[in-house]
Design a protein that fits this description.
The protein is an alpha+beta fold and 147 residues long. The chain has one domain (6-139): VSR Endonuclease (Endonuclease, Chain A, 3-Layer(aba) Sandwich), CATH 3.40.960.10. Helices cover 46% and strands 20% of the residues. The protein has helices at 6-17, 73-91, 101-106, 108-120, 122-139; strands at 25-32, 35-43, 48-53, 95-100. It has a four-stranded mixed sheet, sandwiched between helices.
């Protein structure tokens, strides 16, 4: 088991404080179409993946501009991997929620509410699945981006 990041620790505490740990898997590895995906948090029984993205390493909120004149190749690679992972999970029936470091640290109640909605709000879940079915029909024959 790898060491959790600071934002993963914060999110774990938020989940525990809000009694959102039943069925929760932490550091869950999932193989889809020959690719191994690390899910920081997941509820596999309802196919919900919760991913945390550090602002710098995932190219978020323009944070990288404070340190560099441009996005490094590693950050670009992370961003492409994030996109591919999201699409692979989604096209295999998973709901993916991504939270940035900024969201987790500055808007914890919004983060918790989004997770609760994805787990418990039946109308939201039904609409999400209808939208997924419609969109999947539109894109099902399109190739996924390469890593």
């Amino acid at each position: 088991m790898k060491k959790r990041t600071n934002i993963e620790e914060i999110l774990m505490n938020l989940l525990a404080e809000n009694k959102l740990t039943e069925g929760l898997r932490v550091q869950y590895y999932l193989n889809i179409q020959g690719f191994r995906h690390y899910l920081g948090f997941s509820f596999p029984q309802i196919k919900l993946a919760i991913l945390t993205d550090g602002d710098y390493w995932h190219g978020l909120h323009g944070y990288w501009t404070k340190r560099e004149t441009g996005i490094s190749n590693r950050i670009r690679k992370n961003m492409r991997r994030d996109h591919r992972t999201h699409n692979l999970l989604w096209s295999n029936g998973w709901t993916v929620i991504r939270f940035s470091e900024t969201d987790i640290k500055n808007h914890p109640s919004d983060v918790v509410n989004e997770i609760k909605k994805s787990i418990f709000d039946k109308k939201f879940i039904e609409k999400r699945e209808k939208d997924r079915a419609i969109l999947y029909e539109i894109i099902k024959d399109q190739p996924l981006p390469t890593p």
